Amino acid sequence: MSMQPPQAVAAGTRSPDGYWVWDGTQWMRTTPDVAAAAAPQGRRSPLVIAGAAVSIGAIAILGASYLTPFETYDAGQGYPAGSYTLFTLDFLQGAALVVQVIVFLGTAIAVMAVAHRMIVAIGSGALVAFGVHELTDSIGLVGSVLSVSGDHIAVGTILNVIGALALIIGGVIALLGAFSGSQRVAPL
């Protein structure tokens, strides 16, 4: 700390980091004020906010992809024509998709709301992993649909690919923000 405060400072004033106190003539080293140390250290990186916002939009697209048909099939071999959506899956498969959306959304909100660099980085990495998981699921579905005569890719699969790519992009943007110089967060 410099010997002179940048402007008139009252004796007893603590520095923003809580490690120094102005005694009227000079800054004196002191133990940090718990309240000052717990206070937010600055604003979050715009990249973290943007990445989390893109991820939330991607999650909305993924949710829509589950509600719309992601595969259609023609009638044949004693089965009527139809499609698969969240509502035509068995209970456990449908519940897993709902839980998945809740976990994705909670992770994106945590990335946006929490001010710890490590948590932002882990959450951002998880968003990228979630996006990769969704993308590989979609690629697998496309491969299986194309290998069966009478099955067709539907709009839900296209939405899922778009949502997965957007989730990966949002996670990468937030991850870059977590390590950028403008990300000012309290250490764990």
What does this structure look like?
- There is one protein chain.
- With 188 residues, the protein is mainly α.
- The chain folds into two domains: 1-39, no CATH class; 46-178, Butyryl-CoA Dehydrogenase, subunit A, domain 3 (Up-down Bundle).
- Helices cover 55% and strands 8% of the residues.
- It contains five helices and five strands, in the order ββααββααβα.
- It has a three-stranded antiparallel beta sheet with strand order 4-3-5.
- Strand 1 and strand 2 (27-29) form a beta hairpin.
- Helix 3 packs antiparallel against helix 4.
- Mean pLDDT is 82; it is low at 33-40 and 183-188.
Largest sheet: 3 strands, antiparallel
Strand order of the largest sheet: 4-3-5
Please identify the top-level CATH class of the largest domain.
Mainly Alpha
Shape category: rod-shaped
Report how far the terminal alpha carbons are from each other.
24 Å
Q: Give a count of the beta strands, DSSP E runs of length 2 or more.
A: 5
Low-confidence stretches: 33-40, 183-188
Q: What name does CATH use for the topology of the largest domain?
A: Butyryl-CoA Dehydrogenase, subunit A, domain 3
What is the succession of H and E elements?
EEHHEEHHEH
CATH architecture of the largest domain: Up-down Bundle
Output the radius of gyration.
Answer: 25 Å
- β-strand percent reads 5-15%
- The helix-and-strand class reads mainly alpha
Q: How many structural units, i.e. domains?
A: 2
Give the overall pLDDT as a whole number.
Answer: 82
* Helical coverage, percent range: 55-70%
Please report the number of helical segments.
5
